[in-house]
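User: Second chain of the day. Same drill as before.
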Amino acid sequence: METTAAGKQSSSPGRFALKWGIVALIVLVNLYADVCMYLNGDIVYPLLDIIIVGLGVYVFTSKKMYAQRYAFPSVAGMIAFIIFPLVYTVYISFTNYSGDHIMTVEDAMRYHLNAVYRSEGGDYDLKMIASDGGKYQIMVTQGDSSYITDPVRLESGVIAPEAKRVDLVLREPSDAEKAAEGAQLKEVISHRLSLQKLNLHVPGGKVVLAMSGLRQFSAESPRFTPIAKGSKLDDGTPVLVDNALFDHEQKKLFVPNMDTGFYQYAGKDGLPEGKTFAPGFRVNIGFMNYIKFFGNKSIRAPFAQIFIWTVVFAGFTVFITLAIGMVLACLVQWQFLAGRGVYRVLLILPYAVPSFISILVFKGLFNQNFGEINMFLNMIFGPIYSLFGATWSAPEWFTNPWLARGMILIVNAWLGYPYMMILCMGLLKSIPDDLYEATAIEGASPLQNLRYITLPLLLKPLAPLLIASFAFNFNNFVLIQLLTKGGPDIIDSTVPAGYTDLLVSFTYRIAFEGGKGNDYGLAAAIATLIFILVGFLSLIQLRMIRQNNDGRV
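Assistant: Same format as last time:
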């Protein structure tokens, strides 16, 4: 009876209405956001949001999916933050997306359509006359000819760049209007943004005036007009592509080149040729970024060098931090050590301090001219070298490639050993004391206990954590960016690359620090290759661990 009552209560009209009301609110809010993003020219993110929200509504409203409700947040997070970025990165790697190619071809066409050129009609002097109600009349004069507008309200301050232009028709001024005093220059300046949005139409002709100076309007006409694909110009030039424009100033066909991602003038055959014109636009270029990477030695060589250093850095970091952490964990667990609790707290402190603070502190300590480490070394080795008639040179931590790499390993060991020490301290507690008592009876030394008991029983449960630590250090961007920024630089590389760069920082520098514009497409291609390499290394490590575990069973 209680179960039936509970079932009836859960399906009551009030709860039913509340449930579907919440669902409707969530759907409407997300649809509104998706529409806003779509109107701003974004398609990918609204599509992703629709997929996730649609799946969420289905999972949380369907009785068949009741068990999946608890797993859906994790699945949604995996889709939004892992699968989608991965797929989008792969997609970008097949485009020419860069600092010079950010727009779509439609955006680039709209940019060119806003261009104007000086047409026949000449320049007119501007006089702005104050009228009643805070309005103004715009009067333009060229020689003996003058024209004026009816009173119009001009907004002062910031005008949105995308605001539409306002068309005003000029007429002949009266004698009183001709004699009226014009506004001062500071008043013209305060309304210049509104004046720049005006199109003044001269009566009796096709001349349109636009503001060309603080005291001047000039005859201007739109430079480009769209022209349909499949049509022909008067000289017989065919229009072979969409989004083509006709340049009224040059009297030429202006077409997008879907291979280079730039607008160019077309030849008699309708094909683009000659100089390219910014802004560029995104186009699919297939495997060109991958071909550029593998075919360009100046890019491929530093990648290979950086890849080897990245593997060595991650491997050495895991080994060093594990060794230090394990030794310290054994020491602080030693029953004859007095004040073990104090030592534990002191040794864990580096883990409690935010890593970026510790990195910046070490950056100051390793300063080649004023750092405390070099000062200490100068005090110790300077007199020793002088006794033998030699001159001591302080280590150049940031300019010597090998010293810079050594410095990074030292700093990372300091940051990483507390984590390994905590893990080893917990795992040491799980090792039975009977094993050590038995070996003590047999006369085993501490090193033999470490080799035959402690290490085998620690490494097996530590293996997944060591793989995670290797993956983390493989992509340890923060350390490199804050400490060396990848330097010292590799001189013979055509892309930004340094001796201490990891693959992740190398990709970042290509994407955001390239001298010829940020090359997001090439960076995405390299990031895709990094993903494949890391995945391959992880599979090898997991396979080795599985084989190792199977051999011990």
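The longest strand covers residues 116-130.

User: Great, on to the next one.
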